[in-house]
Each structure stands twice: as C-alpha cells, then as structure tokens.
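chain below, 532 aa
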Amino acid sequence: MSHLALYRKYRSQSFGDLVGQEHVVRTLQNSLASSRIAHAYLFTGPRGTGKTSTARLLAKALNCVQGPAAEPCNECENCTTITSGTCLDVMELDAASESGVEGVRDRIVNAVEYKPNTCRYKVFIIDEVHDLTPKAFDALLKTIEEPPEHIIFILATTEFVKVPPTIRSRCQKFDFHRATLSDLVKRLEHVVTNENCTADAPSLNALARMADGGYRDALTLLEQALLTCDGHLTIEHVFAQLGLIQDETIDEILVAIKRKEVKNLIERLDKVYQSGRDARSIVESCLYRISDLTRVLYGIDGDQSGDHAVTAHAHAVAVDLGEEFLNRARTTMGRAQQEIRDVGLPRLWLEAELIALAHPPAQSVVVAAAPPVPQTKSIVRESSTPNQPKPSAAPEVEPKSNPRPAAAVVPPAESQDPTLQPAAAAWAQVVAEISQLSRTAMSRLQRTVVARIDENRVIITLGEADLDWMKGKPKFVPTLEETWKKHTPDPALTISLEIEKKNSVGLNEAAVELPLEGDRLNAAGRQIFGQV
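prediction:
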C-alpha cells in the first residue's frame, strides 16, 4: 500500500472531529437536524482550515442512510464511498485546473438533469471556485440560482472577493477561521500519539507557530520532522529538518546587535552559515523570535503551552533588548525579508544591514540655515599718548568665499531667540523619534524649520512637496501631533505645518542680476548709508 500523507490520513471524518470551526459545525448541524437545507453553500477562509473536509462531511451527512443527520454514521455504503472518493453522486471539481466554460457545462450543467444514482442528493463540490472564468461563472449562475431539488452546491475559496456578487448572493456563506496555537498543538499531540511517537512540548509549539493557523500545514511540517526523530521529536530535530535556527542562537545575535558588539555578531553569523543556513533563514528566524519576544514583553501568552523555564528565559531576553530595540529590529527584518530576494550577495548584504542596525545613524533635526557671519578686518586705533608704543595691529583676515551652507543642525539661528529655544528642542526630539520609524520620513522632516510661535501654535515651515507628502499619509500628521504632545514643554502649544515662504533676493545674497558697479553701486550706497 502506498504511503498516505498525514493530512489525508487524519482528515476529519465527523463533525465532532473537526477542530477549531465550532461556529460552522453548530450552524450546519442545526440546519441538518431541522431539515432546513440550502441549495448552495460558500465556504471561505485561509488554506488548510478544513473547507474541503467540511464539504465532504456535509455531503455524507446529507446522503447518510440514517440522514440527513447531524452526524454521518461512516458505516453505510454512501458514507464509505464518499470517504473513499468513489461515490458517483458526489462530484469534486478543482476550478484551478478546470476553469473554462466547457468544463462547467460538461461536468455540472449537463449533469444536473440526471437524478442521483444511489444517494439522496447529487452534491457538487467546487474547490478554489474563484479561479473560474467569467464565462464559466455565467454558465453556472442559472443552475445555482434555480437548481433541481436533488442538487446541492458546495463552493470553497480562499479569495472570497474574487467570487462574483451574483454567485455570493445565492449561497449561504460560512467563514473558516485560522486555528489557534493551542488547537494546533492539541491536534499535533493527537497525531503523534497515534503514530506511536513522542514529542517535546517546545517542538510541537514551534511546528504550530510555523503552520500559521493551518491544520494541513501543521501536519505536513510534522510529517517532515518525524522523518529523523527516531520515535522522539525534539526541538533540535524540528529546527534542523525545517532549516531554521534555534532560539538561543538568535537571542545571541540580537543581544550582540543591541550591545553594538560587531565582532561577536559577525562570529555568530559565521557559525550559522557554517551549519548550512543561508541569509534568508536568518531573517525568517529573527522575525519569528522577535515576534515571540514582543509577545512575552507585552504579556501576551499566545496560547503557547511551553514550560516556565523557557518563558522566563524569553522574558529576560525581551527585557534586556527593550521595547524600542525590538520595534526597530522588527522593522529592519521585515524590510530585509522583502529585499533579500533581489540581492546578489545576500550574506554580505545582511551582514551590513545588521551592523547598521547595531549602529543607527544619529538623528538630528535640521531647523534652519545659519546665516554667514561677516568677517571684517580688525581695526586698531592709535594711542593718544605720543610716548606710548603703538600696539601691534592684528593680522588682517581676508574674507573667504562663503558658499551657501547646508541646513544647520540644532541649535539653529532661530534658537538665538529665547522664546523659540524650548520649541526647537522639543521639535528636535519629535523628529528624532519619528525618523527611527521611516527613512523617508526622516528625509522629509530634516528640512523642516521652527519658524515662529503664533499665540498657542508653533509654526513649522517646510517645502510644498514635503507638505503634500505628509498630507498624503492619513496617519502621519496625527502621529506627529501625538509625538509633539509627549515632548512639548507647554501642553497648551500645538504645531501647525505651513509652506515655507521664499524671501526675495537681497543685497547680500547671490542674485541673477549683474553685480553692483558704477552708478548702481553709488545709488545703493546712498540708499543704505545716506548722503555722504
């Protein structure tokens, strides 16, 4: 006999065996018990949550010899043939491979005219129904709208929005939820016991976490891990078989980053690479571990049933790393997970990213451009006493060319006004905090200027393009305001963003016009110094 995959071997054969979808089971059993049976059902939800299994259970409950019953007997001929997939009256169609209109007409439209052979109802189960073409949906629509009394449709999809509204409105819709970690762990324990194996609690928790709420994914991962366990499954087997990295190693990497120990960080990465893991495995393992540490830090159990020693260690590491670092590391790793697929040298690129995470650039707010300080020659007056020697004149300092300076870092020119100093300092803290979350926001905010205080408003000026970008992000300006409230010295002060006004070119600024000379120079001198 050929090998049967665990997810097929342990497929639910009764409603009582269907885990995690109690709301669906309760509704279906009530309708079966009261004989209020719909002609079309639509099962929607993530992959591996039991949609197709429930469709087959519903087909058995409808056609059971003792039914329609709230639970199929799994002993009569109809139940056994449906379980084995040989029942002629229960037809399964995979819309992903038979999406055309001809397939729908041949398999469904033409077949509904015939009565069931041995069952009470002829049931059509269409999996991944969203993959049907528009014309196939049109061909199916009339049949679903007014089917014969002996026809039942059960549609399953992972993408509900792709199903046309005309089809949705004619079906009873059931939402299938992702499994919780506790439900997945219980299911895995049941399978491990029936397979005459044993498993450590951390290993099952790790498998359940990686399954992302899917029962089928959890059983597939378990089957892969059981290949090398020799009857007892450990966390080491799970990480080794699935290509991930142990939590202790990831903790050491994160701690080295937090403490800016670059030498230690590179040595840890080298050991991971020598064990056969690649850069993508490091990123995925870091994301999983950061998620666990964040949950522990905020007191979220996540329905995990690990031992107390493991939880205490995770809590100690989370406290050591801190909330700010974990959030920053999560952002960096999330971006790395997206970008690493397009990198030519992922190992060196990831090493550079982690070193940059250990040494974040200093955040500074650029508030205003400091005006050039005029450099004048030193003037030494002669002594009025003739016998007193003249003091030596200070060396003349030739004026140097003053290129237009880059925007000045706080404290800016405005900080010479004492009334603006507290606001400028508070705004510097706001920009530093926001800049840690987004490089784009950092580049936009560095061009802002604390211009003035107008009654209870601190006027922040910036370029028109920067203001348009901020207004295009619905949550950005409210975030600025909330952050300002944390750092403002006066709770009554609010911030207001305005477009920076460009001043006209004066005498001391570079101009496109010709330089002052001749009569124009004389006129400008009389205007400034008066008549001489």
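The first strand starts at residue 40 and ends at 44. The chain has four domains: 6-175, 181-242, 247-358, 408-499.
thats it, cya
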